[in-house]
Amino acid sequence: xxxxxxxxxxxxxxxxxxxxATDDVSLTVMPGEIHALIxxxxxxxxxxxxxxxxxxxxxxxxxxxxxxxVTPLGTVARARAGLGRTxxxxxxxxxxxxxxxxxxxxxxxxxxxxxxFAPVMAKGELRERAMGALxxxxxxxxxxxxxxxxxxxxRRQLEVAVALTLEPKVFLMDEPMAGLGASxxxxxxxxxxxxxxxxxxxxxxHDMDAVFALxxxxxVLVYGKIIASGGAEDIRRDPVVREAYLGAEDAA
Amino acid sequence: xxxxxxLNIVLFLLLPVTAGAALLLDEPFIITLATKAAILALxxxxxxxxxxxxxxVSLGHAAFFGLGGYAMGILAAHAQSYTPxxxxxxxxxxxxxxPVIWLVAIVVAGLAALAxxxxxxxxxxxxxxxxxxxxxxxxxxxxxxxxxxxxEDGLSIYVRNGFPGLNTLDPIQFFAIAFVVLALALLLxxxxxxxxxxxxxxxxxxxxxxxxxVGLAPYRLRLVAFVISGAITGLAGALFADLNRFVSPxxxxxxxxxxxxxxxxLGGVGRLYGPVAGAALFILLEHVLxxxxxxxxxxxxxxxxMVVLFARGGLIGTVAGREVAHD
Lengths: 252, 327
What we know:
The complex is a heterodimer of chains A (252) and B (327). Chain A is an alpha/beta fold and 252 residues long. Chain A folds into two domains: 7-82 and 168-251, 3-Layer(aba) Sandwich (Rossmann fold), CATH 3.40.50; 95-154, no CATH class. Chain A is built from nine helices and ten strands. Chain A has helices at 45-53, 75-81, 98-110, 125-137, 152-165, 181-195, 208-214, 232-237, 239-251; strands spanning 7-16, 19-29, 34-38, 60-65, 68-69, 83-86, 170-174, 201-204, 217-222, 225-230. In chain A, the strands form two sheets. In chain A, strands 6-7-8-3-9-10 form a six-stranded mixed β-sheet, with helices on both faces. The mean pLDDT of chain A is 90. Chain B has 13 helices and two strands, in the order H-H-H-H-H-E-H-H-H-H-E-H-H-H-H. The radius of gyration of chain B is 19 Å and the shape is globular. The interface between A and B is medium-sized, with 42 and 28 residues.
């Protein structure tokens, strides 16, 4: 079997009581692409991301990652397998410096968290990897700041930097542009554009300019169901999508 | 130099200077108080790894303190009565050697922490507090109802256990032993906090989701921390029993767990020298206020209330300010 897809989601379902948050969703992420997931608020995008990352059990369906069935694995094992997730609401160790957060990511990538004596922040491989990731997102000058003292936008950048230290095989990004402002959003768009050659991205994003500029493929999620999937032009023209989602913006 | 670093040096020197001065003034009782402070600080250093670094509010550390105490009591009792602990399937004899007793205390307390932690760490928050408390109380009632080793009356040891090359009955020499053990534990705890393990453990306290997302399992980190923490507190229990030449079920009681936690909170949760400051202050208050009134715990309670309300970082936090992220 030749499965080129890095990430393959098959017939995934999840209900909360009577609410079908994820309803028979199938999608793939191929090497080198950005696959954007869009949909109105409450469509189930974050639920889907959480299921893919391993934080939520599926009612039905399978998830394949790099040819392996990761359905029974939890968050930790999937992260180890190479899923690099960023959160919609920044999820960082707030007491730590920016650099410590990045070193934590590098430690997760390298392993060896059960080393009890050597100072982890000493100059070396972990610190270099962490600094490298911070430089790539433009946070190198803030490395020694406490994370709690960062601006909202800088925390978003740090989320991405930590994901970079993991050197994942696929990124799962939940609204990396949220709250970045116009110029921040633009530079993040440029950054993600380059990132796809390192690892494909499953991108949840509300910023439609960014989505249409970046995405190789777009899937539209409404009430937990994928109602359309295709290239940017196909999605723009799709009458079902226009009605369900973009229509509201056209009218505005 | 950072204020906390200076304060740490002062705290480190506080006990040996006190003991040294007491030696010159021929006040052996003060030396014993300093020894007690060093041993209780050691118990706090153990708890601080779970509580401060890992955010694990254990109200059951008396279990490890008591197990260390009974490890000493049982081994020494058999040695002084010349009866073996067991003969089948193989012979185990008692011992009066401190290093052997310490090793047994560390292993027994560590194994108990592994078992208790493996179960308790599946819960969190107030359930974790209650389950650790329940395990501690279980051992307390077990010790009370087990007549072989004194039951409620406890066990007396006539002569303090020996350490090669030293006279442990000499107060200053026993103080030196306790202080060196404390210093080694502080060295270990300091290295631990700055190690890869410490970084991951403390991150799991701040944000478990973050740690999982980078591929590290919080449960494993916490369990290992709990074992190290319990083992150190167990070692303190063995020394404490040796100081008093007596063990009783009180060492297992939840009040003991509470007192160890008080040292950590008074001194500063998560601060390396917090337990030293807390235990020294506790002993000082017990000695000074205890001389004035039988009900000195009232004042201790007031002080604790003030610290919790107005000085969240404890003594060290008040003097040195917010913890500076290392490196």
